[in-house]
Each structure stands twice: as structure tokens, then as C-alpha cells.
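Support request from a user on the community tier.

User writes: "When I paste my C-alpha cells into the form, the page sometimes reloads and wipes my input. The last time it worked, I copied everything first. Here is what I submitted, just in case something in the input itself triggers the reload:"
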């Protein structure tokens, strides 16, 4: 076998191994504590409240079904740390959208990875692959 064929075979084998290893793994983390940390650390200003689906209703619906979908570099980072970081990016975007619409809350929040809804009254979903960590959320902008 020539050196060129050996190199090609190794490259193809490595590429197959890496693509199989790069599959996203789902993690569920406590939503309220993550939001509280983001406010305490100054990433959120506290003027907009965040509620998972099934935890708070009412108010005037200003804009339904607002979607955020943020990603971050998760290479060589813990799932918990990179998930917390990318959740904050989503929350900042939701906070800015809410303020722009005159809302003071985002309600009915669900995880929305690849347009698949996952509802929980306590956790959000984060997906981490070898290099990328993703959180996608969908919620309603509301004025209380």
C-alpha cells in the first residue's frame, strides 16, 4: 500500500471517529439558579423576569413565540460552565427583545433545540458537542 493511500485511509478513519464523537449530548440545568446568578453577576439588570412554561401566567401578551438560539465554543470546557455561559447570552437577547417591545417578563419559556420543544417547570436544556455548546429558547414577551 502506498504512503498516499495510508494517509488517506487514516484521514478518513479519523474524520469518521471525530464526527461520531461530536454528537450533541443533552444536559438539564436548574433555570432559576442560572437566572439568579446572571442577575447577581450583572449580566441581566433584573428589570425583566423570566418564567418557564407552567410557572407563571397572566399579563398582556405583547409578542408570542420569540426564539433565541445561541452557541458558544465548548471545546475543552465543562458542560456546566459552557451551558451557563450560552444560557446567559440567550437571556440577554430575550431581555433586550422584551425591553424593545415594552415587556417586563418573558413567560412560557421552553427549550427549543432544533425547533423541538422541551417543557420543564425547573430546568432548561443545553446541548454540548465536542466543540460547540448550544441553548435555544422560545418564550412570550409579556407586560404585567
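"...and here is what came back when it finally went through:"
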Amino acid at each position: 500500500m502506498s504512503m498516499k493511500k495510508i494517509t488517506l485511509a487514516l484521514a478518513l478513519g479519523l474524520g469518521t471517529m471525530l464526527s461520531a464523537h461530536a454528537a450533541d449530548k443533552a444536559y438539564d440545568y436548574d433555570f432559576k439558579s442560572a437566572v439568579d446568578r446572571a442577575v447577581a453577576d450583572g449580566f441581566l439588570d433584573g428589570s425583566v423576569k423570566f418564567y418557564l412554561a407552567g410557572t407563571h401566567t397572566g399579563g398582556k401578551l405583547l409578542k408570542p413565540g420569540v426564539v433565541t438560539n445561541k452557541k458558544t465554543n465548548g471545546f475543552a470546557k465543562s458542560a456546566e460552565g459552557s451551558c451557563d455561559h450560552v444560557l446567559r447570552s440567550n437571556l440577554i437577547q430575550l431581555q433586550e427583545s422584551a425591553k424593545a417591545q415594552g415587556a417586563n417578563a418573558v413567560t412560557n419559556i421552553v427549550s427549543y433545540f432544533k425547533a423541538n420543544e422541551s417543557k420543564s417547570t425547573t430546568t432548561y436544556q443545553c446541548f454540548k458537542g465536542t466543540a460547540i455548546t448550544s441553548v435555544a429558547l422560545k418564550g412570550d414577551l409579556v407586560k404585567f
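Agent notes: The reload is a front-end session timeout and is unrelated to the input. The two ends are 72 Å apart (CA to CA). The chain has one domain: 23-143. Escalated to web team.
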